[in-house]
Amino acid sequence: MEENCAAARHQWKFFRAGGFDQVLLETGDDLLALSQLDNKLWSALSCPIKGVEFDQRTLQLIDSDGDGHIRVPEILSAAEWAGKCLNSPLPLAQGSQGVMLSAISNETEEGLQILGAARTILTNLGKSDAELITVADTCNSETILAQTRFNGDGIITAASAEDERLAGWINDIISCMGSETDRSGEPGITRDMIERFSAETSQWLAWQQMELVGVACKLPENAIELWHSAKSKIDDFFIRCSMAAFDSRAATMMNSSDECLAALAPRNLSESSAEIAALPLSAVSANGSLDLTQGINPAWEETISKLRNDVIRPLLGDTAVLTSDQWNELKSAVALYDVWWSTRIETTVTTLGIDRLNQWQKEEPESALLSLIDQDLALKPAFDAIVVVERLTRYCRDLLPLANNFVSFRDFYTGHGKAIFQSGSLFLDGRSFELCITVTDVAKHALLANLSRVYLVYCDCVRNGGNDKMTIAAAITNGDSDQLLVGRNGIFYDRRGVDWDATIVRIVEHPISIRQAFWDPYKRIGKMVGEAIQKMAAARSKANEEKAVAEIIPAGAKKPDAKPAQQAFDVGKFAGIFAAVGLAIGAIGTAIASILTGFFKLPWWQMPLVLVGIMLFISGPSILLAWFKLRQRNLGRLLDANGWAVNTRAKINIPFGASLTGMARLPQGAITSLFDPFAEKKRPWKRWVIIIAIGILTVTACVWWMGGGKIK
């Protein structure tokens, strides 16, 4: 009751970033009181295990249901369990690589079990005097478990048996039944595997020992299958022979007809095995005997030869000619054998051979192997505690950093290192982009990430000749997008500092900055004017080429690209066009003169305002639209597209967004030489044009001033 009251009285600290209030977690008490914090104040309610830059083993231990996501109840459960295992919550906030033995609670049964397991681990590692157990200590399973034959997982290996005879049986069971991986990393067997091996061995041996009445001996493994493949064909042969004995005319008709043989004669017989196999097994005659050594249909020679060796010779002896009576005797014997064979069990133990299986039945090692399993399971509580020690050391190291990237996004908004969803830094176009997220499906991610209102470039990253691959989405939050094109290359550095070759494969366009929005209309106008000038220049160049060709090719000669004859020059039509062009030029000139006249009639202090107004008229809509979209940039949609359940409007405002993109700047105090040996040479006429224009404007202004604001 007192603990609940204390938790209810816990004083929380909040900081505002990203447009919302976030809880500040600094102490172990903050972690233990998380159950009292309203879930609506959590920044995230779920995050995936994969695709985040955090210790995967720790996330797996927290993910109690194993569904691949970390959720609020699992965070709370981990914090509560760690608090019960410690004397005080202080180690949860120290961020050390482990936990002091003195900090583990000795007042609870679980705490005592963890403490004993921790001392066992340190002793096996040769660190019995150590007072600190680290995550690295608990991960050194080979060294910890090398000191004992048993480790409490219910799996025994060949090393678990001191008797070589039992070790041999363990290896044999593994070869037949497969294996389970022991905690030591070696293949081993379980109680169920031993019992199944013993049961199947007993059943198979019992089947082998069944008495067969009327059968001289047992046949090879594949004899029954071979028998069924040839029986109907041999039956067919003896029936044909019976027909030949019944009627002499059938002796000829029951053999291959002339038409069948004539049809096969011109064909490639190696490709006609089915047609040949359909012919009689051997030449049909009234004597009704089958010569097993010669005169057999070529398609059946191999089958009959195997049948003679595997079935006929064991049951009838070494006979070269099979009569009808012998065939009937053989069918009766095999029928009895077939009944026995149908009762067999399908098992992999037969790979060891009957002699080895008889040895199992004679030695009866099953009880000894099961005893080893019992000895191993007797240590289960102690060795399970080793896993619990690992859990505690990892929680002391990782639980607070995880909470500060889940309950709040402190690391992302305060710059205390990278957040767990930031996979690295992309260097491209003279800039570095810090908000990079690992993506598995670009199309699926872009569908939802488009709602974030963030300019994104998706890059395929490869290294080691393309053997290692990954895809990232990088947020462009400062600068411009003029040189960001699909196919452009950059370098991506992951959280370990490993460099990857990055290539842009997709772009999601949104405003990047106010500065870009201001200059964007002028760039578009400049681009349109440039394209128009290029088209005019190209048309003029083509016209000059055609004119030159016309002058070079003699009159009457055939031109390379003959065109339809041009119509005669129409003077009236040309005069009308010329007059229209003149009127248009005059109208434009009049309009410009009127604008300039009105501009110079303004008071001097209004002229800059007019210029500013014109610029706002051109750039204003673009700036306004960009301002609205930049205010809507949302980190949550980026993370939601990656499997997160973000619980708040995590905004990326303009100043914070600018901090996520590093611009290229010269180092402070750098010495710069302005001399460029390859700079374009300056032309004096540009300077004179500027001087004349300034002079005209100055004279005009003076005349306007002396004229009282009127141009005379």
The largest sheet, given as strand count, sense and whether it forms a barrel, is:
8 strands, antiparallel
Number of helices: 27
Structural class: alpha+beta
Please list the strands of the largest sheet in the order they lie side by side. Answer: 13-15-14-17-16-11-12-19
The gyration radius over C-alpha positions equals: 46 Å
Q: End-to-end span in angstroms?
A: 96 Å
Task: Based on Cα principal axes, name the global outline.
Answer: flat
Kindly estimate the percentage of residues that lie in beta strands according to DSSP: 5-15%
Helicity range: 40-55%
Based on DSSP secondary structure assignment, what is the total number of beta strands? Answer: 19
Compute the average pLDDT: 80
